[in-house]
Design a protein that fits this description.
Belongs to the peptidase S10 family. One of its GO terms (biological process) is proteolysis. By secondary structure, the chain is α/β, with parallel strands linked by helices. The chain contains 18 helices and 13 strands. It has two domains: 132 residues, no CATH class; 347 residues, Alpha/Beta hydrolase fold, catalytic domain (Rossmann fold, 3-Layer(aba) Sandwich), CATH 3.40.50. The strands form two sheets. Strands 1-2-3-7-4-8-9-10-13-12-11 form an eleven-stranded mixed β-sheet, with helices on both faces. The protein has a two-stranded antiparallel ribbon with strand order 5-6. The longest helix is centred in the middle third of the chain and has 21 residues. The radius of gyration is 22 Å and the shape is globular.
């Protein structure tokens, strides 16, 4: 009966003039809407892959499960590093995915500029289907790319406080590839199993890091990847599978984790920030009941309702953007230049240089910055609620940090704050009753933080979707203090927190 009601409501939405539904859903003029939507998103980053194979497929094989090379990028003065060139451990490599037909996962590993005993931090970029090299060169990696394609040392790279690992995933993203289309993943089970297999191989190759504390981080669609991966590692540890991984925590930056709560926050955030008017708010919100029902059905039957929920719920966002015009939905303080919001094309130009490809050991593999194939393959996964697996991790004292730049619309802080507060776990009421405390960095008010036990929420000031790019110093300090259990200055978060009245 619920399915019948939902289909009836969907039919009404599609036939109505409301919120440009037919244009947005594209049923009449664009039968391949998901692919077009993916390509639109990627063009807006100026990263559309030219003539890329569907799975970034190539034909060469290696008998080893993991092939790694010592990395020295051309065009950078290594004497500027805080450690000697001999001690600087930069690596690039491929891992043959154990439970796949022919998949190879590419990664970059940068040992800490301070100490190899620092925690091991893995970073996952979202999309879905966008390469983690975006973060390496524009957010929190050791380098930034200058206009002349030379590399400069990043004063606030996360490798200053951690051993930093970036992975191109899911398969078909970045330099990761397969010669078999069956290796493309469609859900978090496949994604998290691949990442777990990768991590096991990594620790076999680098056993000296197996005893280091381990943290999972990332942003955007990684709000799906990260909880699933953390749960997979935790499950593997409990089952004594392979090498024990010292999982201490996971951090989600401006992520999509609980769509039902977060999509409902779009109009509230847009109204609060003056993007839409109250009449727009009332009109757009008429689609919310259909969106919410579709998401509920996706969580139970997991088939056509998951695709329908993607189409219907995104009319909410698209209707807001039809009013916002050329506003940059990753940072509403800015305007998109023409059809672009950010231009990361220097990264592609840099990585397509023969000297760079030789240094990475990738041969003639096509680099796919953001893959429409991966994006489209994950559509059934989009509206799934990944919050459901988090409480069990919190109960076992695995720490969670959810942080969000205040000027991001697409994965805004309001929606993230709401799902964190709504999450049911033993410390929920105490977390809700905890106060907001200023997050200070060098006497500057960098954000507001709320914490209880293993759970922390941080609203970052003067930042959009990519916090490490907009606030590099604050993001480095955030990571350092959080891993030390001292994100709230002067308070040891490992101690039982006081129960105070909520200010949020």
């Amino acid at each position: 009966m619920e399915n019948l009601v939902f289909l009836s409501l969907l039919f009404v939405v599609l036939l109505s003039p409301f919120s440009y539904a037919n244009d947005i859903l594209g049923f009449s003029s664009h039968p391949k809407f998901p692919k077009l939507q993916a390509e639109k998103m990627i063009r807006e980053l100026n990263l559309f892959p030219k003539d890329a194979e569907p799975v970034n497929a190539v034909g060469h094989e290696s008998p080893k499960s993991l092939v790694e090379t010592r990395l020295r990028f051309p065009g950078i003065d290594y004497s500027d590093a805080s450690v000697s060139v001999e001690d600087l451990g930069h690596h690039a490599g491929y891992y043959k995915i154990k439970h796949s037909s022919a998949a190879r996962m590419f990664y970059l590993f940068f040992e800490s500029r301070d100490s190899r005993k620092d925690p091991l931090v893995i970073w996952l970029t979202g999309g879905p289907g966008c390469s983690s090299e975006l973060a390496v060169f524009y957010e929190n990696g050791p380098f930034t790319i200058a206009k002349n394609l030379s590399l400069l040392w990043n004063e606030f790279g996360w490798d200053k406080v951690s051993n930093l690992l970036y992975v191109d995933q899911p398969i078909g993203t970045g330099f990761s590839y397969s010669s078999d289309k069956h290796d493309i993943r469609h859900n978090e089970e496949g994604v998290s199993n691949d990442l777990y297999d990768f991590l096991q191989a990594f620790f076999q190759e680098h056993p000296q890091f197996a005893d280091n504390d381990f943290y999972i981080t990332g942003e955007s669609y990684a709000g799906h990847y990260i909880p699933a991966f953390a749960a997979r590692v935790h499950r593997g540890n409990k089952a004594k599978e392979g090498i024990h991984i010292k999982l201490k925590g996971f951090a989600i930056g401006n992520g999509l984790t609980d769509p039902q709560i977060q999509y409902k926050a779009y109009t509230d955030y847009a109204l609060d920030m003056g993007i839409i008017e109250k009449t727009d708010y009332d009109r757009i919100n008429k689609v919310l009941p259909v969106c919410e029902m579709a998401i509920r059905l996706c969580g139970t039957d997991g088939t056509i309702s998951c695709m329908a929920s993607y189409f219907v719920c995104n009319t909410i966002f698209s209707s807001i953007m039809a009013i916002a015009g050329d506003t940059n939905y990753y940072d509403i303080r800015k305007k998109c230049e023409g059809s672009l919001c950010y231009d990361f094309s220097n990264m592609e130009r840099f990585l397509n240089q023969k000297s760079v490809r030789d240094a990475l050991g990738v041969g003639d593999i096509d680099f796919v910055s953001c893959s429409p194939t991966v994006y489209q393959a994950m559509l059934m996964d989009w509206m799934r609620n990944l919050e459901v697996g988090i409480p069990a991790l919190l109960e076992d004292e695995v720490k969670l940090l959810v942080y969000a730049g205040e000027y991001d619309l697409i994965c805004n802080w309001l929606g993230n704050s709401r799902w964190v507060h709504a999450m049911e776990w033993s410390g929920q009421k105490d977390f809700q009753a905890s106060p907001e405390i200023p997050f200070e960095v060098r006497d500057s008010h960098a954000g507001l933080v709320k914490s209880y036990g293993p759970l922390t929420f941080l609203k970052v000031h003067d930042a959009g979707h990519m916090v490490p790019m907009d606030q590099p110093e604050a993001s480095l300090e955030m990571l350092k203090r959080w891993m030390e259990g001292k994100l709230v200055e002067g308070k040891d978060e490992s101690e039982e927190p006081e129960k105070l009245v909520a200010q949020m």
